[in-house]
Design a protein that fits this description.
mainly alpha, 30s Ribosomal Protein S18, binds zinc ion
Amino acid sequence: MPVKNTKTGDLKRSFNRKPHKTFKKSCLLCSKGINHVDYKDIELLNNYVASNGRILPRRITGLCAKHQKMITNAIKRARVVALMPFVKE
Ligand SMILES: [Zn+2]
């Protein structure tokens, strides 16, 4: 219910605002049923790397702990064998 501010005469914002929308992120690799991430699968790994070459954190990728670790290890292996860059400018 709006209440008038006595000083400015403005209507105060009512407090019955909608709660913040929450939607559960589901792990993409779990839903696909992938149990192993190959370090030679550059197309897949490129989805989890930022434009500057950094590995994206889990809060952005939405992966589960198991798959995030698999992706991270695969990217690191791909870097060592020069399939992916360590740094992009
Ligand atoms: Zn997963």
